[in-house]
């Protein structure tokens, strides 16, 4: 009995792994196809050919078809972007250092993201609308990450940690996507931005740089 | 086509009564069934004038009209913001006034609300990524001219930028604070913005 259960469990695990790799392969293929022809012209036939699977297989795993494929591919890319960013600042202590390095790094990655930049030029309405749908999930993950970082900092009197984290998440997303009047390649400028507009109201003892 | 809808660089518009009439009609139509389905005929009918007259009053066809709508609505928003800022007694109320004026102006704009909900691809690009830079530029410019009563011009421009970023962030991702509510905005401004500003 126990043995059967263990076998079933490991079999299911293996099947799940295979399924994941198939989904990943299809999503990889979708990204390649978008890279080649843009968001508007992507077809399931192209994706199937690129992934070397049957069109019916794609439908079985992505019953929503093209829209679901794009949705999941974008979600996965967005998730990777933030995960990689978190990894790149992991060695730094404290929220200030991570925010400064993270903003510089994220901006550089965004500007260097050839596919995103091309889509923003060629199909801005489509790509921005799809990205906007990932918005709530991004804010949730980012705010929770920042809330964790804030939990080991000494906050100013009366500051609510979750509210502060949500405020910071807004500023992070805003500044990464739009440079505005700040040069995110200039680390001293970014530090000044972070101290003045991000943290001065949140963390006790931050003297805003003049 | 909407390239000029949110071209906030235009600060003042000199429009005649007829142009205002056409723009009002366009706003009504877009607020009712969106941009894609609105035709110049619809707008002419709504304005109670002939299609030819619309063409004469507003050059550039539908695209030209949409651009004009964006410019006029932008000019209106800017005017409301300036009034709110200029009558404020201190920095906090100036910032709160600016944020609530823009938010309320946008919320009461049924055309903008419709597009945001049903045709996001028509408006979101102008609120995201590099396309937002000109809007931020206007925020910096307005801050740098209208907030200098309270701040150095550099700090004033930075606050102008902060205001644009906050408002746009809440358009793209609403809640939990309501930027049309003075109390909510006052709380955000006092908690998160003022402590980082010189002399406050």
Structure explained in plain terms:
The complex is a heterodimer of chains A (210) and B (200). With 210 residues, chain A is an all-alpha fold. Chain A folds into two domains: 1-63, Orthogonal Bundle (Arc Repressor Mutant, subunit A), CATH 1.10.10; 72-210, Tetracycline Repressor, domain 2 (Orthogonal Bundle). Helices cover 75% and strands 0% of the residues of chain A. Chain A contains nine helices and no strands. In chain A, helix 1 crosses helix 4 (65-88) and helix 5 packs parallel to helix 8 (161-177). The longest helix of chain A has 36 residues, at 2-37. Chain A is elongated and about 60 Å long. The mean pLDDT of chain A is 92. With 200 residues, chain B is mainly α. Chain B has a single domain (17-196), classed as Tetracycline Repressor, domain 2. Chain B has ten helices and no strands. Chain B has helices at residues 17-33, 40-47, 51-57, 61-86, 91-107, 110-118, 120-123, 133-146, 153-172, 182-193. The radius of gyration of chain B is 18 Å and the shape is elongated.
What labels would you give this structure?
heterodimer, A: 210 residues, mainly alpha, Arc Repressor Mutant, subunit A, Tetracycline Repressor, domain 2, 2 domains, 0% strand, elongated, B: 200 residues, 10 helices, 67% helix, disordered N terminus
Rounded radius of gyration of chain B (Å): 18 Å
Main beta sheet of chain A, described? none
The CATH class label of the largest domain in chain A is Mainly Alpha
The total domain count of chain A is: 2
Number of helices of chain A: 9
The percentage helix of chain B is 55-70%
Radius of gyration of chain A: 21 Å
* Overall spatial form of chain B: elongated
In the CATH hierarchy, the third-tier topology of the largest domain in chain A is known as Tetracycline Repressor, domain 2
Low-confidence stretches of chain B: 1-12
Oligomeric state of the chains present here: heterodimer
The best one-word shape of chain A is: elongated
Number of domains of chain B: 1
Low-confidence sequence ranges of chain A: none
The portion of residues assigned to helices of chain A is over 70%
CATH topology of chain B: Tetracycline Repressor, domain 2
Give the ordered list of helices and strands of chain B: HHHHHHHHHH
């Amino acid at each position: 009995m126990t043995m059967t259960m263990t076998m079933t469990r490991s079999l299911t695990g293996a099947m799940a792994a295979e399924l994941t790799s198939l989904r990943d392969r299809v999503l990889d293929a979708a990204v390649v196809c978008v890279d080649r022809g843009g968001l508007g012209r992507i077809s399931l036939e192209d994706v199937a050919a690129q992934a070397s699977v049957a069109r019916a297989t794609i439908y079985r795993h992505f019953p929503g078809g093209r829209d679901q494929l794009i949705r999941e591919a974008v979600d996965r890319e967005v998730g990777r972007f933030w995960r990689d960013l978190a990894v790149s600042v992991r060695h730094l202590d404290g929220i200030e250092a991570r925010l400064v390095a993270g903003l510089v790094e994220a901006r550089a990655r965004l500007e260097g993201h050839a596919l995103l930049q091309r889509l923003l030029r060629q199909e801005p309405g489509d790509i921005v609308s799809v990205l906007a749908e990932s918005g709530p999930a991004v804010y949730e993950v980012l705010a929770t990450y920042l809330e964790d970082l804030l939990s080991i900092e000494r906050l100013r009197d009366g500051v609510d940690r979750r509210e502060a984290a949500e405020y910071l998440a807004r500023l992070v997303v805003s500044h990464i996507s739009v440079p505005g009047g700040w040069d995110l390649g200039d680390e001293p400028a970014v530090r000044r931005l972070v101290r003045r507009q991000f943290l001065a109201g949140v963390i006790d003892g931050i003297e805003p740089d003049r | 086509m909407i390239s000029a809808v949110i071209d906030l660089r235009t600060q003042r518009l000199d429009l005649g009564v007829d142009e205002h009439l056409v723009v009002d009609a366009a706003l009504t139509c877009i607020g009712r069934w969106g941009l894609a389905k609105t035709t110049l005929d619809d707008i002419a009918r709504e304005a109670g004038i002939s299609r030819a007259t619309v063409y004469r009053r507003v050059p550039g066809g539908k695209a030209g009209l949409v651009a004009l709508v964006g410019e006029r609505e932008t000019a209106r928003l800017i005017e409301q913001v300036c009034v709110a800022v200029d009558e404020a007694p201190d920095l906090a109320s100036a910032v709160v006034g600016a944020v609530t004026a823009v938010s309320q102006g946008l919320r009461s704009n049924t055309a903008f609300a419709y597009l945001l909900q049903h045709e996001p691809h028509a408006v979101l690009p102008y609120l995201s990524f590099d396309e937002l830079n000109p809007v931020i530029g206007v925020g910096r410019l307005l801050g740098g001219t209208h907030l200098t009563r309270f701040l150095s011009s550099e700090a004033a421009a930075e606050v102008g930028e902060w205001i644009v970023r906050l408002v746009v962030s809440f358009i793209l991702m609403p809640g939990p604070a309501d930027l049309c509510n003075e109390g909510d905005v006052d709380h955000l401004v006092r908690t998160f913005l003022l402590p980082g500003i010189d002399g406050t």
